[in-house]
């Protein structure tokens, strides 16, 4: 049998990598809280139609990336490829459309059958925010400000720029779609095979193509801006005004159409040039029609998601491994006393481990690897005298400390 490997495009998070991930998630959770967002957790799998209905048949995700399977009851289920559709499903099935707005933060693994490469995996993690039930451009600006604040708190804001666009409302989009069909039809022979299918089904999707030939054509395609209705133009102007009020800088990029079908009005991406071709770290937009597609009422909404792996790579440095105090029994001191002191230290908030077995030298080596700040030696003699020997791994200095002091004031002893 060949050796067992993790599934292609998946990875284990261990040590420094796990700490980077945890930093991204806990920072985002904290900042989202400051903006009044509450965390929701939805299941990792859903009925397939939660995604197939909402993301669009011609989106990359639905057409070729979903992990769908029939379960033992013959029901078609899908490992969630993204969070927004599931949050909208949850809004409807929990009858929360009666108490709007809802401001939701979420995090967790997502699954897409993509070609794995740096910054692109088959199981990856997202943090995301959804502001459900707010129709005004101020909500869009707040959602974007939250995204920016997360990037700032992670210390990566200087590596990213905000690219902003509008897809207008339905009427603007219809007029634009017609112009795009006329334009791409005239150049159909130069389109990639995928994009020829898109031309028939969903021509806007061509703008999101990653094919180099398509991209050349896209560069000269008609622009959304020319087709905006008065209402959509007002929304677009207001949004930019509000972003100015929040002090958020952006550049307008008409090519930001996003990969999923449900967006209208605002679309945006925070991009970096530090991650090669996987440069989008946080992206989102307005999706006023999605909740209705889940069987709910019309609920205007705006949100974004960010790739935790990409943000973790951008972090300047990994969070430090935690320091431990390691207790090393010397000889065979009373086990009850050993366990009591371990628990007493942990109850005082000190990360405490025990050096199980081996020679003293081995156990000291191991303590070094465990990133110990101090080692506590406890032998029968010390136990009888009511003391511990405490060695600082930083300075090498060894002191005797009364057991009573350890039991009552451990943190200040190990702060030295
Ligand atoms: P891309 O154009 O890179 O495929 P997307 O439009 O499919 O991105 P979204 O669905 O908007 O991406 O997801 C939001 C964010 O999640 C992305 O900006 C990215 O940071 C991250 N992300 C998406 N797919 C992956 C993946 N396969 N592996 C790692 N991160 C991903
Ligand atoms: Mg994608």
TrEMBL record:
Q: State where L-histidine binds.
A: 82-84, 112, 126, 130, 258, 262-263
A GO BP annotation: histidyl-tRNA aminoacylation
Q: Does the keyword Chloroplast apply?
A: no
Q: Which family does it belong to?
A: Belongs to the class-II aminoacyl-tRNA synthetase family.
Keywords from the UniProt entry: Aminoacyl-tRNA synthetase, ATP-binding, Cytoplasm, Ligase, Nucleotide-binding, Protein biosynthesis
EC number(s) given by UniProt: 6.1.1.21
Q: Which organism is it from?
A: Acetobacter okinawensis
Q: What is this protein called?
A: Histidine--tRNA ligase
Question: NCBIfam families per the record?
Answer: hisS
CDD domains given in the database record: HisRS-like_core
Reactions it catalyzes: tRNA(His) + L-histidine + ATP = L-histidyl-tRNA(His) + AMP + diphosphate + H(+)
Q: Where in the cell is it found?
A: Cytoplasm
According to the entry, every stretch annotated as the Aminoacyl-transfer RNA synthetases class-II family profile domain falls at 1-329
One Gene Ontology cellular component term attached to this UniProt record is: cytoplasm
How would you summarize the oligomeric state and partners of this protein? Answer: Homodimer.
The record's listing under PANTHER family reads: HISTIDINE--TRNA LIGASE, MITOCHONDRIAL-RELATED, HISTIDYL-TRNA SYNTHETASE
Q: Which InterPro entries match?
A: aa-tRNA-synth_II, aa-tRNA-synth_II/BPL/LPL, Anticodon-bd, Anticodon-bd_dom_sf, His-tRNA-ligase, HisRS-like_core, HisRS/HisZ
Q: Which gene encodes it?
A: hisS
Q: Where are the transmembrane segments?
A: none
What Gene Ontology molecular function terms does this protein carry?
ATP binding; histidine-tRNA ligase activity
């Amino acid at each position: 049998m060949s050796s067992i490997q993790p599934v292609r495009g998946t990875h284990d998070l261990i040590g420094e990598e796990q700490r980077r991930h945890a930093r991204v998630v806990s920072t985002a959770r904290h900042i989202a809280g400051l903006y009044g967002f509450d965390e929701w957790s939805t299941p990792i799998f859903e009925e397939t139609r939660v995604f197939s209905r909402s993301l669009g048949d011609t989106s990359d995700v639905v057409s070729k990336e979903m992990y769908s399977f029939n379960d033992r009851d013959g029901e078609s289920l899908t490992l969630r490829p993204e969070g927004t559709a599931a949050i909208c499903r949850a809004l409807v099935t929990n009858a929360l459309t009666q108490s709007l707005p809802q401001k939701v933060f979420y995090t967790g693994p997502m699954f897409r059958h993509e070609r794995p490469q740096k910054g692109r995996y088959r199981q990856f993690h997202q943090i995301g925010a959804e502001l459900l039930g707010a129709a005004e451009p101020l909500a869009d600006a707040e959602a974007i400000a939250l995204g920016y604040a997360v990037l700032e708190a992670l210390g990566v804001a200087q590596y990213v720029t905000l690219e902003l666009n509008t897809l207008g409302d339905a009427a603007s989009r219809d007029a634009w779609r017609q112009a795009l069909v006329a334009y791409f039809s005239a150049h159909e022979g130069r389109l990639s095979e995928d994009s020829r299918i898109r031309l028939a089904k969903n021509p806007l999707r061509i703008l999101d193509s990653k094919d180099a030939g398509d991209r050349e054509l896209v560069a000269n395609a008609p622009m959304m801006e020319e087709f905006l209705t008065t209402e959509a133009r007002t929304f677009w102007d207001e949004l930019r005004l509000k972003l100015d009020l929040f002090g958020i800088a952006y550049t307008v990029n008409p090519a930001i159409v996003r990969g999923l079908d449900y967006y209208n009005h605002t679309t945006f991406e925070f991009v970096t040039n530090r991650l090669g071709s996987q440069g989008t770290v946080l992206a989102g937009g307005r999706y006023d029609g999605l909740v209705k597609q889940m069987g709910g009422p019309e609920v205007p909404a705006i949100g974004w998601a960010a790739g935790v792996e990409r943000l973790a790579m951008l972090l300047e440095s990994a969070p430090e491994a935690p320091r431990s105090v390691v207790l090393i029994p010397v000889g065979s001191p009373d086990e009850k006393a050993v366990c009591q002191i371990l628990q007493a230290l942990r109850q005082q908030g000190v990360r405490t481990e025990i050096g199980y077995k081996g020679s003293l030298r081995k156990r000291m080596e191991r303590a070094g690897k465990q990133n110990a700040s101090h080692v506590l030696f406890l032998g029968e003699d010390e136990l009888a005298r009511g003391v511990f020997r405490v060695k600082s791994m930083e300075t090498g200095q060894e002191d005797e400390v009364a057991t009573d002091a350890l039991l009552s004031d451990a943190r200040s002893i190990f702060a030295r």
